[in-house]
What does this fold into?
Amino acid sequence: MDPLFSTVEYAMGGLQLRLDTIAHNVANVNTPLYRSQTVNFEDGLTSALRAGKPAPATAPQVRAGFDLVDHNGTSVSLENELTTLAKSSLERQVMVSSFNYKVDILKAAAGTAR
It folds into this structure.
């Protein structure tokens, strides 16, 4: 199988987990003592690609986020969450476009594109 597919699958999984985590953080923005969470899968993906592997063997994980707290003791920064949401949504669009482009090339090579 083409390594691009497993790499895109891993990145899409990481982005989806990040988007779910952002939604969870935003839902708890007013929950006293709630600590934000984050997802960073890019470092593992970069290391794997530099080693010539398509994607890491371990799935992306949710980790602790920001430590700064507001008057309620929550560490969710709505501004940071919305910025990360916008960035992650754009990254997801790029992944989908890359995947579709590769599929179109394979279809054309196989003679099935119309």
The beta strands are 37-39, 62-64. The chain has a mean pLDDT of 89. Residues 78-110 form the longest helix (33 residues).
